[in-house]
Amino acid sequence: MWMIFAILSAVFAALTSILGKLGVNGVNSNLATAIRTCVVILMAWGMVFITNSQKGIFEIGRRSWIFLILSGLATGASWLCYYRALQIGDVSKVVPIDKMSVVITILLAFIFLHEDVTVKSLLGCILIAAGTLLMTL
User: Which residue, 5, 58, 85, 132, is the most exposed by fewest CB within 10 angstroms?
Assistant: First the structure.
């Protein structure tokens, strides 16, 4: 089931890039990010209430709060940079560089989460990096 959600995530991320590029035209990129974020907030809280998950907020521990807040700050910074890059650059060049996050994530997972780096994942990272370089030249 995770694979289906991962594929859907990729499809929606692709739509995000195209729709974002069209939407940011003539709009301040920070304002565009704020508008997008409001929509995401409404959608996320809507899902919380639809699934009746709101009671779980009181069960979240301090450590989880800290990391969720830090993750939110990282997401906000990413989105602000992404929308500015979309505004001034070509989608076909911005998106591959943005997807270098896969390589960086695997590296950080190895360093901080002590996850294994297999030959297969290392080769994949090299190919992603090479493909990104090729696409952005």
Answer: 58
